[in-house]
Amino acid sequence: MALSAVVIGSRAVALAATKSIEIHVRTPRPAPITDLVATTSDVLDGAILLRWTASGHSGNAGQAVRYQIVCSTTANIENDADWLRTDVSSAPSSACFSSPLPLPAPAGASEVFLTTGLNQFGATYYFAIRAVNSVNRAGVWLRTGGVNQNNFAKASDIPPLPPTNVRMNSFIFHHAAQVIWDVSLSADATSYNVFRTTVPGFTQSVALATNTPTLSFLDLGLDNGVTYYYRVTTIDRVGFESLPSASTNIWTHPPNPVGPGNFQIAELTTASVRWSWIAGTAVEGAQKLINAETGASISGDLSFSTTEYSETGFLSGVFIASRAVVSYNITGSSRSQAISAWTLPNIPSNFLFAFVGTSVTLQWNANNNGPLVKYFVQRSFDQLNWFTFPTPITTTTFIDASLAEGATAHYRVRAENAVQATTAFTDFISTATLRIPPAAITDLAATPGQAEGQIELRWTATGDDGFGGNLVPPSEFRIDWSTAVDTVFVPGPGNKIIITTSAAQGSLHGRMIPNLIPGATYYFGVFTRDNDGNFSGVSNIVYAWAQWDVTPPAAITNLAVTLTQDATAQMTWTSPGDDGFSGILEGRFEVGYATTLSSASPFTSVANFESSAFKIVIPTVTTPFVQHGIVIQNLASERYIHFAVRSFDERGNGSPLSNLVTKFLDNTPPPDVENFIVVSDTVTDKLNHLTWTVPLSSDAAHLVLIRSIGVPPDRALITKGQPLPMGFKLPDQSVVLSTMTPILGGAMSHNDFVPGIDLLYSTFYYMIIAIDNTGNISPGRLGATRLRENTAPKEPVALLAEIIQEKKRMALTWLPPRYTVDGATITAPYAPMPHEIEKYEIYSSSAVSGPWGLLYQIAADTFSHEMSADALVFYQMRAVDAFGNRSNESLIVDSLGRLYALADDKASYVMLPEHMARFIRPQSNPYGVPLTIRSRELPEEETSITYTAMNYWAEHAETGRILENVAFPEPVAKVVLRYGSGVKGDVTFNSFKASGLQSQGGQPLVSEDPVPLDQADRFLGLYWDNGLERVKVYGEVDKEKRTVSAEVVNLGKYYVQKLYRELGFDFDISQVEPKIITPNNDGLNDVVIFRYSNPKDVRVTGKIFDLTGGYVADLIQGPTADSKKWDGRDSRGQAVPGGVYVFQLEAEGQIFNGTIVVAR
Fold first, then answer.
1. Could you name the CATH architecture of 261-342?
2. For residue 323, what pLDDT is reported?
3. Regarding the domain delimited by 349-432, which CATH topology (the fold level of the hierarchy) does it fall under?
4. How crowded is the C-beta side of 150, counted as CA atoms within 13 Å?
5. What number does CATH give the domain 560-664?
6. What burial letters (b/e) apply to 667-696, b meaning 16+ CB within 10 Å?
7. pLDDT level of residue 758 (50, 70, 90 thresholds)
8. What's CA 801's distance to the chain center, in Å?
């Protein structure tokens, strides 16, 4: 007898007693799945995304071992009975999709499964799902009771992608074109449509070719010379058409022409040229003769049967510009070689004599010759031997001035063009030159001479041939005279003076006739004889009496006297003549001087001068206006000295007294300059300024400025009369800087620039002395200053605050600057010279924005300072040199070890926490250099929707070199931007409507609505420029301080903008970027960033799944505190294959899903 039992729940109940007992305990089936949701995929054709919550192995406990999923396209699957339908038309099946089933997750987990291979694109598919446990028991499927109501969706049908690499066949087709392309990347592409237009940038309308199954299309019957544009679209298997491809184009044209050959001159005349050639070819074209230099057509279009062309109407002997023959059509052209030509010259006509005298002028007609034709003249004296004049003639006139008077000559002429083509000579013509004597002189004049017994003659030369031409050697002037009034003068050997000469017509001539009887009257006549022996007639007859000497020399009017420092007078004057200011003075000068105690001169008359106690006689023979002088030494000092001079001729005729000169011989030094001030320039380095005034009563002739270094110049080393040129070095090594003329009663200055740095901080002494005309030297004024430099050092580098002794004390440490602000190198940064860095100053404040007070001064060779750290205090530093030049402020640190880079608005800044502050030190960053952080507000980018724009960047703290794309190891750098006192703008708030932003009345906000300050935490946020676009960083709004801040990884451009913010966690799919990643470590799209708003700082988790629902990896911390990222690797760090992946973010009970693509 057996006892049978069934299991009810977990208990076995006996039904009947038999001889043996068998107990079968049945494992409970998995619980039904109740939340299956199907949605159409937006990623693949023929795909639907399924989501549900996993049931358990037994009920809702444990983990099932597999799933059963079926689908139908004819009717929904309401229960297990529908699941088991067997009729062919409506039976559910798992064969309707091709993607493998996922393995179940633990009970309660969210499951995602992308069904693919649904071949009825656009059709509605109904799905049912059951979990199966390890004993092959399946759960129940049902839709009653409101469960599984969204178990159906349409299979996705996405239009295909356009073809790629659409291009034209490079082979040229006559009246045709071929467009080719690469296959579309869409798997269901079946054929292609081709579109054509002649307008660039067209939008296709009617297809030129439809449903083309190949990857090319040959377009025939096109017009040549037209640009055709083509686009291609893809057609998929259900007839969906893709967007058009990129446009491609081609210009249709016939083949290139073949150029003419054997281009040459067939015939050349004096007025024309005939060209010949072998014709070229050109489809749909022509040929023409052109100017090869300008391209201008000569012949117009010619048929290809034409092989000659003549040009006529040229002048003789002219240049015909370079010519060529060209074959052409719309495709291009091909020309022959270029040839130039010259027309032949014509023989000159109407050859004759235009003038015959002592020279011959020839003239002829050009006879239609061009302007570049040259002419050559020949001459013969016997009609047998012809001489060619070597210079070519470019006019139609020639003068032969080389003939002797009375010579007979014969002439002829020929023409020649520029390429030496010549004509025959003309018939010759003959002539004889004339013999013409000089004309008689008509303006002879005689006057008494300057010296005794002299008469001076003057006349004008008439010329060689009458009044024309010039006299050439051996031409002569012949002078004759007599004391008889009726003397007749004739040319001959008896003429008294013969002057051989060359004289231009109209030139002036003269002769002094000496040794005549003083006071006697003489009559004069002059003849001219040319080089051929022809005499002129006698000149006009003149007379004059010989001079007596009765005129004294003129008075000297420019006597000048200079006194020197050694009691010496230098006298100078200019001589008069014998008689007044004319004639040679053959006599003497008498120099007189006298000394008195008053300034009144004793030389009131010639008699007083002649009785002068001091007189010097100087014999002389001199012409007028020659400078003379004398030096008089050992004069009495502190006296007035009076000077005068007279001239006497050889007969003792004495001149009046010269101008009188009175001098005072001075041995008193001039006064020193006043208000002598020496200072160093406080702006320009190594520059000293010197200023002074000169007394109005000073008799100084010049000032001398002397400089020494270390010790004052020694005035005793400068003696009277000693030369002191600029640059002169005295025995004490002091140097003359400048010699200058004083400005009496005026202010004067001098700037002394000292190059180099060896003398910085040295004392410079300056002495200025005054010297008068007699060499007297003033005692001198002395001034001194130190040479300084005004260029400040750069600020201390990499300032850090290190907390010690359980945070009761702290130490400031820094690196010394290596350069000044103008780029000069500090020679020893750790032991600088005082003029480079003398000390460091530490300033403190209770707020990062100040005000700052001086706290400590630290020696220049010290680079740390320990202090108390009981309260929150902020610190910054400056470097100071010995001249008081201060550097800019360093970065700021606080007593918690944090580092600040403060912006100019004193409210915006970047803050690094204590553990990240060392990033600015060379050994703690990947750049290996000390860093500093700079900022600049960007007002040009502040608009109606952007209230603050700020750029933060890092640069080499010593050289200023900007470092690109600086990123911190983790998102702990706090960026703070202030947004001002009035937050309003004209942005349209409708852009926030999708997020639910409405006014109290339920209407969307409009552009005129300002953002209330008390709601800035809802409507303002932080954006970051990633180089392509501005991305949301959200950030935390401090309404009291009016700032927005966020913890970030990257520096760069940050903006305070209008941004609707949910009160709780909020995620926007647009904040996923990029949506396609290429993780190949090239720095471009290697990671995907997920940004969100998290004002409550709730816990946020994220995962990546593949399309089968399989777990891939967790999302990790992103570049800001409110972000996550994924680098395309699974949980083991291995690179995942390319494809579509599903992401899932979860926070506050909300789950956000989406897809991203990994491209390999």
1. Sandwich (2.60)
2. 92
3. Immunoglobulin-like (2.60.40)
4. 11
5. 2.60.40.10
6. eebbebbeebebebbeeebbbbbbbbbbbe
7. low
8. 44
